[in-house]
Amino acid sequence: MIHPTAIISPEASLDPSVVVGPYVVIEGQVEIAAGTQIDSHSVIKGPCRIGKDNHIYCHAVLGEVPQDLKFYGEHTTLEIGDRNQIREFSSIHRGTEGGGGITRIGSDVLVMAYAHIAHDCQIGNHVILANAASLAGHVTVGDHAIFGGFAVAHQFCRIGAHAFIGGFSKISKDVPPFVMADGARARSIGLNKEGLKRRHFDADTIALLNRCFRQLVKKQGDEMVWAEFEQAAETEPALQQMLDFIKGSERGITR
Question: What is the pTM of this model?
Answer without folding.
Answer: 0.97
